[in-house]
Amino acid sequence: MEQHRTRPAQYGPRRDPAPGTSKPSRPSRPVRPPLPPQAGRTAAGGVARSTRPDRPARAPQRRPAAPSAVRRPPNPRLTGLGSGLFCGAVMLVVGLLTEALFGASQTVYGVLYLPVCVLTALWVREGNLFIAPVVVPIAFAVGMVPVAKEGEGGALDRLMGMVTALATQAGWLYGGTLAACVIVLVRRVRRVRAVNRRLARSRPRP
Known about the structure:
This protein is mainly α. It has a domain of 123 residues. Helix content is 48%, strand content 0%. The protein has five helices and no strands. The protein starts with 79 loop residues before the first helix and ends with a helix. 18% of the residues are buried.
């Protein structure tokens, strides 16, 4: 015998809709759009390239320019002959200017002689250091020619005036020469120490 299915009691008796009315429809669930595949993987699980657009290449960043170094004073290197010509020419110009501007004042000439000696000792090459104390007294005598005056005579009177000026201004002469000697000795000592350091570094250590 056929058994009719019975509806559970918890749902209650089934009610048919009244005539003329439509059966209420269940609300449809919103359809979600398909999720995009993850970057680097396809839907099938395989590995694929990223679909992101390539990023534009970054322009190379320029480093800020370093602050300009402080300009150092000129540091020329004169040979032995060059230092003699430099010192003699400068002292001759100093003598002419002293005669034209200061009435051939030997004191002014002696004062200006000191910085010329210092510059000559600083600018001479390291291989010709000991020439500086030799050329500065000669340059002093060369520049004394327009400054020294002894009467209104000719060459003999001027020669006598130079001898007198050299004797009276010996203090400036010795002072400038001594300054040149000290600077030359200091530079020589520094040079020898630098050479010794380089030799000590180049020697193999046990």
